[in-house]
Amino acid sequence: GRLEAVTQQMGYHPQYLDSFLKMQHYLMHMDGPLPFDCRHYIAIMAAARHQCRYLVNLHVLQFLRAGGDPQWLRGLDFIPPKLRNLNEINKILAHRPWLITKEHIEKLLKISEWSWSLAELVHAVVLLAHCHALTSFVFGCGCEQDEGLGGRGLLKPLSPGNQCFCEATMGNGCSQELLRINRKRSLDSCMELDSLQEHIQRIHMETEGREETRLQQQDREEGEGKGAEVGVQGRSGSDPSVGLSPIPDPAKEVTSATNLACYMQDPDFGYQDFARRDEDQTQVFRVQDYSWEDHGFSLVNRLYSDIGHLLDEKFRMVDGLQSSAMAKRQGCEPSVFKRGIWNYIHCMFGIRYDDYDYAEVNQLLEQMLKVYIKTVTCYPEKTNPEMFDRFWKQFKHSEKVHVNLLILEARMQAELLYALQAITQYMI
């Protein structure tokens, strides 16, 4: 349940990895409107919408480490109403963000015992969008399959022995500064999580030890006082623990996340093609009317200090990644190819750019690539190893990771645009 697999894949693009880790560390671990345990629980709710056990397991451990109430892990019925009320916009943002309205915002902010503040809500919205988008990357790069299939998924180990994964992928070593930042800022400090798991396992072993000692003592007492009965018991069953309640395994309980359904309501609510919406539903979202650069950035930065700068750096970083090899195969400039992917993703969420000719999408993107992008973006839980292997066989692994980074950032920005526009309309 560690985020190590994700950072390994992002390690193909170390500059992006640096900006990703900075933003995530700030979002989850630095001062902000929301308590730390609530941040991880919101992440659990977000990841559960796409049945992403990899992220749910990670945040369950982090939730407990932050002092969260273990009862909350029994599901939404066991959490405070204020947190449970977030479920509706979690569901909408994850699958049909164009449906979110100022009424949803007003409902959460209305004056009551369980009302949210604007700053808290902005923090929660960024968390939800971040985790929804990250599930796309987790499924898209095979981290979920690798986790679920006991290492038989798509993810290939990138770091032989104790070699730094940056070193393994870059071939010329990685800077000590980047390595220091990664170790410091990564959400899933391996030592901390391993320590927690070891602690849980130690409790389990101590419990087993005490139970075994008790059984041995019981056997001795029975052997001394009821010698004849021992033979009868031995014939009826050689296992001394028969009839006893099984000893719970805390480590398994914490990390298995066997029932993700308890973390969500209305599980059948999923993505529907925006183009097939009813005519009286939400109109097309025009970036010329509300954009990240001109509107979203300033609003989010005002209500949740500095997160806007970190998000903006991440958006700019993915836009600046080199994709010359991919573009060359299509006979176009790298910027043209990347914009085609970005605008295609936004188009699936009803976001349109007036200055873009959408006929370019069909010219730039092969059908199998489009199917892959749509699946990973809209219903990542349906991504399978065959789909990953088939999409653009001529892509290098690092190029496939690059496509998944574009999906991650384009999806996150799309969700933020809808949520922040609804907040703006409420404020007006």
TrEMBL record:
GO terms for cellular component: cytoplasm; nucleus. One of its GO terms (molecular function) is L-leucine binding. Its main location: cytoplasm. Residues 204-227 have a biased composition (Basic and acidic residues). It holds the Pfam family PA26. SUPFAM superfamilies: AhpD-like (SSF69118). It catalyses: a hydroperoxide + L-cysteinyl-[protein] = S-hydroxy-L-cysteinyl-[protein] + an alcohol. It is found in: Cytoplasm. Residues 204-250 are annotated as: Disordered. InterPro entries: AhpD-like, Sestrin. It comes from the Eukaryota. Keywords: Cytoplasm, Oxidoreductase. GO terms for biological process: cellular response to L-leucine; cellular response to leucine starvation; negative regulation of TORC1 signaling; positive regulation of macroautophagy; regulation of response to reactive oxygen species. Belongs to the sestrin family. This is SESN3 protein. The gene is Sesn3_1.
